[in-house]
Amino acid sequence: MKDTLKHQGLRNQLVKIISEKGITNKSVLNAIAKVPRHLFMDSSFADFAYQDKAFPIAAEQTISQPYTVAFQTEVLQVEPGHKVLEIGTGSGYQTAVLIEVGAKVYTIERQQELFKKTKLFLPKLGYKPKKMVFGDGYIGLPEEAPFDSIIVTAGAPFVPKPLLAQLKIGGRLVIPVGDEVQTMNLFVRTSEIDFEKQELGKFKFVPMLKERN
Ligand code: SAH
């Protein structure tokens, strides 16, 4: 597992690409400049790690496109110390970016194989989520709620009610909703019973599936 000056140079180019696409939050750009994405990928794809593209990981899943990771992270408006719930740990890349921007991360993965692999891998890079759970993201993590924000990194057919219920007042849920193509939805909880919804463009994710596997 090596991170070299060459990798750092490639990351700086990636930061330039995603800032040209519209990401402006300094802390998010710094996180993308820091997290060694090539180490989160299969060695056969590692040469492409700093292209702004999604790539296959284990269990027919993907590591999200860096722009998408940066976009969702920016939308969350993470402040240092915020409690953030992530649905879909996958490779752990998004988890690492959240930790870099100062979040205390709770993350759920439904694929046993990915869960085990990423749970071992992240601490090796020095990334320590508060909690990594093998479970079903449709349920969220009621025992740790409420959260400052919740990020869903798989395409959801609908917005799971438990996730809205687990937000603090003022908290934010960012979730791609749809089948083939998803609309990025942002929900802000404005009171115990009120949520404001915004639609933030089209994206493509692997599907959010039910229960554990
Ligand atoms: N954040 C990841 C993206 C992985 S792709 C990364 O940066 O690599 C989406 C992930 O969501 C996959 O790992 C998939 O197994 C997981 N997933 C799908 N449905 C889920 C569910 N109901 N609960 C938890 N994780 C789920």
Summary, kept brief:
The chain is α/β, with parallel strands linked by helices. Helices cover 29% and strands 25% of the residues. The protein has six helices and nine strands, in the order H-H-E-E-H-E-H-E-H-E-E-H-E-E-E.
**CATH first level: which class?**
Alpha Beta
Form type: globular
What is the radius of gyration computed over CA atoms, rounded to a whole number of angstroms? 16 Å
- Counted by DSSP, the helix tally is 6
The CATH superfamily name is Vaccinia Virus protein VP39
Intertermini distance? 29 Å
Ligand inventory reads: S-adenosyl-L-homocysteine
Largest β sheet strand count, sense and barrel closure: 7 strands, mixed
Instruction: Could you tell me the CATH topology label.
Output: Rossmann fold
Multimeric state of these chains? single chain
Measured as a percent range, the helix fraction is 25-40%
Top keywords for this entry?
single chain, 213 residues, alpha/beta, Rossmann fold, seven-stranded mixed β-sheet, two-stranded antiparallel ribbon, 6 helices, 29% helix, globular, binds S-adenosyl-L-homocysteine
Please explain how this structure is put together.
- The chain is of the alpha/beta class and 213 residues long.
- The protein has one domain: 3-Layer(aba) Sandwich (Rossmann fold).
- The protein has six helices and nine strands; from the N terminus they run H-H-E-E-H-E-H-E-H-E-E-H-E-E-E.
- The protein has helices at residues 5-20, 26-34, 66-76, 93-100, 112-124, 161-165, and strands spanning 55-56, 62-63, 83-87, 104-109, 131-134, 147-152, 167-177, 182-189, 195-203.
- A seven-stranded mixed beta sheet has the order 5-4-3-6-7-8-9. The protein has a two-stranded antiparallel sheet with strand order 1-2.
- A hairpin with a 4-residue loop joins strand 7 and strand 8.
- The chain is globular, with a radius of gyration of 16 Å.
- The two termini are 29 Å apart.
